[in-house]
């Protein structure tokens, strides 16, 4: 499953150079023997998608090339989600969202690797929930809201015309959506 996340991270135009410069990382982790991506994500409270995105192409699509002593970037300034939820057996997007008190629109915006049907959620994945109860207007870089949801989707808000936060091309990381 990590390979799907990795592919989505690369295709989505995620951060490509921040992994190389530890000075641009808000947090780093040194790989130990026996580590794998989901284990690191869970222990370090970094979403699996974020780990793949900020370390592409240093981590391959199967996450099989981790080496003890290798330094990984866990997040970058302005794009470092630290609130994670590790998926367990029988979890669904609706159940995760409902348990956290928000709707699946928020869950999908915070986890752009998830399909609308949420059929690629897997046990051990560190997903990014959000404590917020409202979602911003969908952007071209975020997936559309699912057709059915456990709670009604919030009304869309209008973004100010001509606004630019200097990272419009980046993925919608959790800290940009929790407003």
Structure, explained:
Keywords: Chitin-binding, Signal, Virulence. This is LysM domain-containing protein. It comes from Panaeolus cyanescens. By secondary structure, the protein is of the alpha+beta class. The protein has a domain of 101 residues: Roll (Membrane-bound Lytic Murein Transglycosylase D, Chain A), CATH 3.10.350.10. It contains six helices and four strands. It has a two-stranded antiparallel sheet with strand order 1-2. Strands 3-4 form a two-stranded antiparallel sheet. The longest helix is centred in the first third of the chain and has 10 residues. It is globular and about 40 Å long. About 32% of the residues have low confidence.
Structural topology:
Layout: H1 2-11, E1 27-30, H2 37-44, H3 48-54, E2 71-75, E3 85-86, H4 93-100, H5 104-110, E4 126-127, H6 174-177
Antiparallel strand pairs: 1-2, 3-4
Helix pairs in contact: 1-3, 4-5
Domain LysM: 27-74, 83-129
Protein name: LysM domain-containing protein
GO molecular function: chitin binding
